[in-house]
Each structure stands twice: as C-alpha cells, then as structure tokens.
C-alpha cells in the first residue's frame, strides 16, 4: 500500500500536528466501534482513518490562532 505524504493531505494553513491529532482521534473511534461490534479489522485503524481523510469523509479543524485567555 502506498502511504500518502502529509504535504498532499494538509493545506497550506494547516499544521502537521493538527493532522496527527485528527487522524489519531478518528483511528481510536474506528477501533472502538469495531471492538463494540465484535468485528476483526483486516486493515490498521490509522490507515483507515488516513483513507477516510483523503476521501473527505471528515475534515481537520484548526484552532483559532492569536486568542489567549
């Protein structure tokens, strides 16, 4: 399987950190859903999450910059 480059997935205003956080959150959701249903995954949850992101099934939302509390 060919692994996509992070530069091809994220836009110019997005950070790699946000990409990693979004993919890891989605991968945990995929793994938890499979465990709840008793399914055995043949593909790694991270790979599935990256493919879903590339297929625009979810988006990475960047936090607002410059706001301090």
UniProtKB/TrEMBL annotation:
Its EC number is 2.7.7.6. It catalyses: RNA(n) + a ribonucleoside 5'-triphosphate = RNA(n+1) + diphosphate. SMART domains: RNA_pol_Rpb6. Keywords: DNA-directed RNA polymerase, Nucleotidyltransferase, Transcription, Transferase. InterPro entries: DNA-dir_RNA_pol_omega, Pol_omega/Rpo6/RPB6, RPB6/omega-like_sf. It is an enzyme of class 2 (transferase). One of its GO terms (cellular component) is DNA-directed RNA polymerase complex. SUPFAM superfamilies: RPB6/omega subunit-like (SSF63562). It comes from the Bacteria. It holds the Pfam family RNA_pol_Rpb6. Promotes RNA polymerase assembly. Latches the N- and C-terminal regions of the beta' subunit thereby facilitating its interaction with the beta and alpha subunits. Belongs to the RNA polymerase subunit omega family. The RNAP catalytic core consists of 2 alpha, 1 beta, 1 beta' and 1 omega subunit. When a sigma factor is associated with the core the holoenzyme is formed, which can initiate transcription. This is DNA-directed RNA polymerase subunit omega. The gene is rpoZ.
């Amino acid at each position: 399987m060919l692994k996509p480059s992070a530069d091809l997935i994220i836009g110019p205003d997005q950070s790699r950190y946000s990409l990693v956080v979004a993919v890891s959150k989605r991968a945990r959701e995929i793994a938890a859903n499979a465990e709840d249903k008793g399914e055995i995954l043949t593909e790694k949850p991270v790979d599935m999450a990256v493919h879903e992101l590339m297929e625009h099934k979810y988006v990475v939302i960047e936090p607002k910059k410059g706001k301090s509390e």
